[in-house]
Amino acid sequence: MAHGPQPGLSRWLYTTNHKDIGTMYLWFSFAMFLLGGCMALVIRAELFEPGLQIVQPEFFNQMTTMHGLIMVFGAVMPAFVGLANWMIPMMIGAPDMALPRMNNWSFWILPFAFAMLVSTLFMDGGAPNFGWTFYAPLSTEYAPPSVTFFIFAIHIMGASSIMGAINIIATILNMRAPGMTLMKMPLFVWTWLITAYLLIAVMPVLAGVVTMMLMDIHFGTSFFSAAGGGDPVLFQHVFWFFGHPEVYIMILPAFGIVSAIIPTFARKPLFGYSSMVYATASIAFLSFIVWAHHMFTVGMPIAGELFFMYATMLIAVPTGVKVFNWVTTMFRGSMTFETPMLFAVAFVILFTIGGFSGLMLSIAPADFQYHDTYFVVAHFHYVLVPGAIFSITAAVYYWLPKWTGNMYNETMGKVHFWLSFIGLNVTFFPMHFVGLAGMPRRIPDYALQFADFNQIASVGAFLFGASQLVFLFNVIRTIQGGKKATDEVWENPEGLEWTVASPAPYHTFSTPPAVR
Amino acid sequence: MLRGFNRLFALVATALPAGSIVAEEKAPERWGVNMPRGVTEVAQTTYDLHMLIFWICVAIGVLVFSVMFYSMWRHRKSKGYKAAQFHESTAVELVWTIIPTVILILMAIPATKTLYDIYDTEEAELDIMITGYQWKWKYDYLGADVSFFSNLSTPRAQIDNQLPKGESYLLEVDEPVVLPVGKKVRFLITANDVIHAWWVPDLAVKKDAIPGFINEAWTRIDEPGIYRGQCAELCGKDHGFMPIVVKAVPQAEYDQWLEQRAAEAAKMRELTEKTFTFDELIARGKEVYDRNCVACHQANGQGVPPTFPAIAGSAIATGPLAEHLSIVVDGSEKNPAMQAFGPQLSEADIAAVITYQRNAFGNDMGDTVQPIDILNFKNNQQ
C-alpha cells in the first residue's frame, strides 16, 4: 500500500514524494511564467508607440515591478527547484530527498506568498511600483501601502528558497549511491550544490534588507532615510549583495542542464568535466565580490569603482571556459538536433551574446552611458530568457519522456523552438539599439526616435508569448499519451536516471544502484 | 534593408519643416543603433572605449561561433560523422584561460585611464548645483543669483495623443540649463526626495542624485548646441517625464543670459509687493498649477487617490485658508509626495495657485490670497 500515490487531492497536499513535489514546482512556475509574461505584454503593448494609450504611468510601474518579481521569484527559481526535486535523487541514486516533509512545506508556502504578492494589485494605492530592485526611499517613505504585503511575500519566498536549498545540500552530501564520488556527480547536481550554497548565503541578506525597510516604514527607524541620519545607498549595497549572487542562482543550474544535453546529442562525453566544476565554483565565488557593478553611478570612490570593475571583468574568464568546453564537446561529435538540443545550442549562442554585453557593462566608464538604459534590459533578458528559460525548456523536453513515459511531439517541439527563438531575438535585440541611442529603462512613454525599434520589440514579444502556448499544448498532449518512450529515451545518454523505467516509477532506487 | 529604410527616413526628415526651436540642433536619428559620439572629450573617449570593447567581443564571437557552426554543419549524425571520444586536455584549458585574461588586461588599461579622467573634478571654472525633485530638476548657479526649476514642457495633450507629437516630444523643458562652451563646469548633484539620475548622453555624464549625498561630475562642452537627456533612475510615477535640456552657448551669450536671469529675479521680488486682481490671480494660478501640480493632482483636480488626493472638494482647498497655505508652503508631514513649495515658487506664484485651487474644480470659495499674505505667513513661521 505504501508504494503508490494517494488518491485525489490529498496526494498533492500531503505528498512527500520528490517527483510529486517536483511536478508541483514545475506547474507552479509555468503558471507564474504565463502571469509574469502577460504583465510583460502589457508593458510591450503600452510601448508599441509613443504616447500613453493603454495604461497610465502608475500602473505601468506596477507592471514592470510585478513582472520582474514574478519572473525571478515565481518562474525561474521554482522551475529550477522543481527540476532539482525530480532529477537530483534519480541522478545520484537516492530514494528521495533527504528532508521530504520540509520539501512539501517549502513548496506549499509558495502559492500563498504569490497570492499575497498578486493581491496587492487590487489594493488601495495599487501594487508595488518601485521596480523589482525596490530602491529606498522610493520603496519606503514614498511607497504605496501595499509595500508591507510585498515585504512579507518576499519573506515567505526566501524561507521557501532556504528550505529548498538546505534540502538539496543534505540530499547531495548524504544520499549519493555508493561509488558516486563528488567528482563523478552529473554537472546538474554539481551546479545545484553550488547554487544551494549561494541561496543559503544570500536569501537571509534579502530578508534582512526587507526587514530594515519594514522597520523604516512602520517602526520609526531610519536605515535608509537621509533625513533621519540613514543612508539610501546602504540599501543598494545590501540589496545587490543579495542581487548579484541571485543572478547566478538563476543561471548555474542552467549550466548543469546544458552540460547534460549537449553530450547526449553530440554522442560524445562532455569536454573538461573537472574544469566545468572549477569554473562554476569560481563564478560562485566571484559573484560575492562584484555587487557594486550595479551601482557604478552612485558616486563610489574611484578605488571602489576600479575594484568592482576588475572583479567583474574576471567573471568573463570562467564563463568563457564553460562556453569553450561546450563548443569543444560539440566539435567532432555526431550531432542530431532534437528539440532539447536546439534549445541547448540556442542557449550557448544567445547566452554568449548576453555575456558579451555583460563584459561591455563591466567597463565602468562605458557603463556610465549604458546604466539604466534599455541596453541593460537587453543584456539581462539575453542572459535570463535564452539562459534560464531556454535551459528549463530544454530540460523539460529532455526529461519529459522519462517523467511521463511518452515521447513529446517532435514537430511541435521544433515549431515551439523556432517561434521562441525568432520571437526572443526580435524582442530583445532591438533593445540594445534603443538603449545605446539613449532610451532609459522603466519609462512608460518615450521620445520619437525610439519608436521604430520599440514597435518591432513589441511584435516580437507577442510572438514569443504566443509560442509558449504551443509548449503548454505539447506538454499536456505528452502527459495524456503518445509514442511510448524507451527506458533510455535517447541514444546512450549518460546518467542513472536513464537506468530506471519510463515513466519513472513512483519510488526509484529504494536500494542504491551500483556506480562504476 | 535597414540602410534602405535609413535613406527613406532621411528623405522624409528633410521634407519636414525645420524645428522651430533652434537651428543648431541636429535632429535625432531614427533607427539609431549606437550611442552618440558626444560633444566633449570624455564623451568621445567613452565612445571609443565602447567601440573597442564591442569590436573585441565581435571578434571573439566570430571565432567561437564559426567553430560552432562549422561543427554543426559537418559533424552531424545524418552525414554519417562518427563521434570522436576525446574529453580532456589541461593544455587547452590553460590556453583558453590565459588568453582571455590577457585580453581583459588590455581592455582594463584604457578603461582605467578614462575613469581617472572622469573622476577629476578639480579646477572647475563654474559650479552648478543640480537637485532632483519628483519630477523636475532644479539648477542653482553657485556664486550667481540664478536658481530655477526645469519642468517638462511637452503639452499633456501630446502625451494623451490628442495633438500631434512635436519633434522633441518628452525631451523639452520650460527652462534649459545654460552652460558656457569651453569652460570646465562642475555639477554638484543631489536630490530632494527619492533617487534620480542626471544623464545627458552627448556629455557622457550620468550620476545618481541621492537625498543626503552630493555627487560630483564635470563636463567641458566643445560645441555650442542643445543637448537633451532624461532622468535615468526610476523615481516614481513621472520618471519618464523629467527630461534635461542643456543649452551650450558662447561665453558672451552666457554672460548676457546671467544678467537677464538676475534682472528677472529682481522683478519677481517686486511682484511680492503688488496687489493682484482676482482674474490676474486665477490666470497666473492656472499656469502655475499646470506646471507644478498637474502631474499628481491632475488637470481636473481629481488627483490619483490615495497617494495623490483630489483638490476638487477637498477639506483643505475648501477649508480654512491657514491650512491651505501651510500645506503648499511647507508640504505634508503625513504624505512625503506633497513637497514643500515655499522654497520652490515665488510668493506671487504661491498666492496665485492657492487662489486658483480654491476657485477652480467647483471649489467656489471666492476668496483671494495676495503675495504679501504668503510673505507674512512665511515670516510668522520663523
Q: How would you describe what is shown here?
A:
The complex is a heterodimer of chains A (516) and B (382). Chain A has 516 residues and is mainly alpha-helical. Chain A has one domain: Cytochrome C Oxidase, Chain A (Up-down Bundle). Chain A has helices at residues 9-14, 18-46, 57-92, 100-119, 147-174, 187-218, 232-249, 252-266, 273-286, 302-314, 316-330, 339-362, 364-370, 374-404, 410-436, 451-480. The longest helix of chain A is centred in the N-terminal third of the chain and has 36 residues, at 57-92. Chain A is globular, with a radius of gyration of 22 Å. By secondary structure, chain B is an alpha+beta fold. Chain B has 3 domains: 41-71 and 89-119, no CATH class; 126-268, Immunoglobulin-like, CATH 2.60.40; 274-381, Cytochrome Bc1 Complex, Chain D, domain 2, CATH 1.10.760. Chain B has 10 helices and 10 strands. Chain B has helices spanning 2-15, 41-74, 90-119, 156-159, 251-271, 278-292, 294-297, 321-330, 347-359, 371-381; strands at 126-133, 136-141, 146-150, 177-180, 185-191, 196-200, 205-209, 215-219, 225-231, 243-249. Chain B has a 5-stranded mixed beta sheet. In chain B, a hairpin with a 4-residue loop joins strand 6 (196-200) and strand 7 (205-209). In chain B, helix 2 (41-74) packs antiparallel against helix 3, helix 6 packs across helix 9 (347-359) and helix 9 packs across helix 10. The model of chain B is unreliable at 1-23 (pLDDT under 50). The interface between A and B is large, with 98 and 99 residues.
List the helices and strands and how they pair.
The complex is a heterodimer of chains A (516) and B (382).
Chain A: H1 9-14, H2 18-46, H3 57-92, H4 100-119, H5 147-174, H6 187-218, H7 232-249, H8 252-266, H9 273-286, H10 302-314, H11 316-330, H12 339-362, H13 364-370, H14 374-404, H15 410-436, H16 451-480
Helix pairs in contact in A: 2-3, 2-4, 2-16, 3-5, 3-14, 4-5, 5-6, 6-7, 6-8, 6-9, 8-11, 8-12, 8-14, 9-11, 11-12, 12-14, 12-15, 14-15, 15-16
Chain B: H1 2-15, H2 41-74, H3 90-119, E1 126-133, E2 136-141, E3 146-150, H4 156-159, E4 177-180, E5 185-191, E6 196-200, E7 205-209, E8 215-219, E9 225-231, E10 243-249, H5 251-271, H6 278-292, H7 294-297, H8 321-330, H9 347-359, H10 371-381
Parallel strand pairs in B: 1-5, 4-10
Antiparallel strand pairs in B: 1-2, 2-3, 5-8, 6-7, 6-9, 9-10
Helix pairs in contact in B: 2-3, 6-9, 9-10
Membrane topology (chain A): Multi-pass membrane protein
Subcellular location (chain A): Cell membrane; Membrane
Transmembrane segments (chain A): 21-45, 65-86, 107-127, 147-175, 187-215, 247-265, 277-296, 308-328, 340-360, 380-400, 415-436, 456-476
